[in-house]
C-alpha cells in the first residue's frame, strides 16, 4: 500500500510504465461495479461544446458597457483602487477580473483532464480505470467549452497564476493516489462547484450561465469518485495516516485561501490600467479584512466554505486541524448541514434540460450510417 493510502483494492495501482501489468489475464475479470452508476449516468448529461444546440456562442455581450459579474464581486472596485479609475475603466477592470477567474477555471479543467488521464495509466481495476477514462473525456469538453467562451469574449485566456499552477503540477505528478483523489476530486472539484454555483446565480451573460450549468452536470459526478474513496478509506486509516492526509489537505486549503486570487496572482490584469500590483495589494488589504473574509464564508456557495465542507463531510478534518478551519467558518453549523454538494439543484436542472434536448437528437447509429 505504501504512500498511496488505499485500503480498498479498487484503488490499487501499478507503476505508470508497467504496461505488462495491465494485460495480465486475471486483471480483466477483477472489476469493481462501484462506479457503474456514475459511468452509466454519462448518457443523461451528454453535451457537445461545439454544437450550437447546447451552447450558442453567437449570443453577444458588450463588454464596454456591461460587466459579466456584479461589481460587488470585484474586490478592487470596493477599495481605493476604484478612486483611480473612470467609469469605463471600472467596467473593463471588472470584466478583466472575470477574464482572470475564467482563465483559472480553464487551466483547472486542463489540470483535471491531465490528472484523470494519469489515473488511467496507474489504476489496476478495470472499473476504476473506465471511470477515470470517462472523466477524462468530460474534462476535455470543459477545456473546449471554456476555451471557446474565453476566445469569444476576450480573444484568448490569461496565463495561469503561480499558486494554481504549482498545486496542479503537484497533483498531476504525485505518485500517491490519496493526493490525486483528495487534491483534485475533492478539493479542486469542490472549489469549482462553489465557483460555478456563484457564477450561475450572478452572471449577466446567458451564455456563461448555460455553460457553467452544463459543466456542473458533469462535475457533480466527479466529486463522487473522491467521496467513494473517502467512504472506503478514511475510517480505516491509522492515526499516523490520518494525520498525514489531513495535514496535507490543510496545507492545500491555506495555500488556496491566501494565494489563489490575491493581487500578486492577478498582476497581469493591472498593467493596462497603470496600477502597480503591490499598491493594489496594500489597498485591498486595507479595505478587505479577515472579518470580511469570514462574512463572505457564510454564503453557501463561497468556494472556500464549500472546500471546508467537503473535507469535513469526508471525515478528513479532526481536532488536530479543526482550529485552522474554525478561524473562518462555524464548524458546528457546517457539520449540521446536509451532505449535498453545493449546486446539485442547478446540475439536476441541467440534466433535465439535456435529457429534453438529447431525446430529439439523431441516434449515433443513424449518424454513422448516414450518406456522406
List the SSEs and their pairings:
Layout: H1 19-22, H2 25-28, H3 36-40, H4 87-122, H5 126-154, H6 162-173, H7 177-202, H8 206-233, H9 239-259, H10 277-287, H11 290-296, H12 303-313, H13 322-326, H14 331-336, H15 344-358, H16 364-369
Helix pairs in contact: 4-5, 4-6, 4-7, 5-8, 7-8, 7-9, 7-12, 8-15, 9-12
Give your account of this protein's structure.
With 372 residues, the chain is an all-alpha fold. 61% of the residues lie in helices and 0% in strands. It has helices at 19-22, 25-28, 36-40, 87-122, 126-154, 162-173, 177-202, 206-233, 239-259, 277-287, 290-296, 303-313, 322-326, 331-336, 344-358, 364-369. The longest helix has 36 residues, at 87-122.
Taken from the alpha-carbon principal axes, the silhouette is globular
- Percentage of residues in DSSP E strands: under 5%
Query: From N to C, what is the helix and strand string?
Result: HHHHHHHHHHHHHHHH
Structural class: mainly alpha
Q: For the report, how would you describe the main beta sheet?
A: none
How many individual β-strands?
0
In terms of quaternary structure, the protein is: single chain
Ends: how far apart?
Answer: 53 Å
**Number of DSSP helices?**
16
User: Could you name the ranges where pLDDT drops below 50 across 5 or more consecutive residues?
Assistant: none
Q: C-alpha Rg, in Å?
A: 21 Å
Report the average pLDDT across residues. Answer: 91
Helix content: 55-70%
Amino acid at each position: 500500500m505504501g504512500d498511496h493510502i488505499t485500503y480498498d483494492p479498487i484503488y490499487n495501482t501499478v507503476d505508470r510504465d508497467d504496461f505488462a501489468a495491465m494485460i495480465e489475464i486475471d486483471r480483466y475479470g477483477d472489476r469493481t461495479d462501484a462506479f457503474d452508476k456514475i459511468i452509466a449516468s454519462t448518457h443523461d448529461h451528454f453535451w457537445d461544446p461545439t454544437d450550437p444546440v447546447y451552447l450558442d456562442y453567437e449570443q453577444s455581450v458588450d463588454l464596454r458597457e456591461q460587466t459579466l459579474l456584479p461589481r460587488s464581486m470585484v474586490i478592487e472596485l470596493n477599495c481605493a483602487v476604484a478612486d483611480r479609475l473612470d467609469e469605463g475603466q471600472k467596467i473593463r477592470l471588472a470584466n478583466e477580473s472575470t477574464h482572470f477567474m475564467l482563465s483559472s477555471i480553464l487551466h483547472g479543467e486542463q489540470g483535471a483532464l491531465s490528472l484523470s488521464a494519469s489515473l488511467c495509466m496507474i489504476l489496476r481495476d478495470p472499473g476504476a480505470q473506465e471511470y477515470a477514462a470517462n472523466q477524462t473525456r468530460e474534462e476535455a469538453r470543459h477545456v473546449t467549452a471554456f476555451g471557446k467562451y474565453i476566445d469569444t469574449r476576450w480573444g484568448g485566456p490569461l496565463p495561469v497564476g503561480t499558486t494554481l499552477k504549482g498545486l496542479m503540477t503537484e497533483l498531476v505528478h504525485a505518485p500517491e493516489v490519496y493526493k490525486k483523489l483528495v487534491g483534485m476530486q475533492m478539493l479542486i472539484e469542490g472549489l469549482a462547484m462553489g465557483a460555478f454555483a456563484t457564477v450561475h446565480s450572478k452572471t449577466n451573460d446567458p451564455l456563461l450561465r448555460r455553460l457553467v450549468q452544463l459543466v456542473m452536470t458533469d462535475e457533480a459526478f466527479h466529486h463522487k469518485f473522491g467521496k467513494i474513496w473517502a467512504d472506503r478509506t478514511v475510517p480505516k486509516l491509522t492515526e499516523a495516516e490520518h494525520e498525514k492526509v489531513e495535514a496535507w489537505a490543510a496545507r492545500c486549503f491555506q495555500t488556496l485561501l491566501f494565494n489563489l486570487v490575491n493581487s500578486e496572482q492577478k498582476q497581469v490584469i493591472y498593467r493596462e490600467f497603470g496600477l502597480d500590483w503591490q499598491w493594489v495589494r496594500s489597498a485591498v488589504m486595507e479595505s478587505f479584512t479577515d472579518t470580511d473574509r469570514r462574512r463572505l464564508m457564510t454564503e453557501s456557495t463561497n468556494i472556500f466554505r464549500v472546500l471546508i465542507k467537503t473535507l469535513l463531510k469526508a471525515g478528513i478534518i479532526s481536532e488536530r486541524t479543526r482550529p485552522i478551519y474554525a478561524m473562518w467558518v462555524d464548524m458546528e453549523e457546517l457539520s449540521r448541514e446536509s451532505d449535498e454538494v453545493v449546486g446539485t439543484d442547478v446540475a439536476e436542472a441541467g440534466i433535465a434540460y439535456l435529457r429534453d434536448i438529447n431525446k430529439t437528437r439523431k441516434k449515433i447509429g443513424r449518424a454513422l450510417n448516414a450518406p456522406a
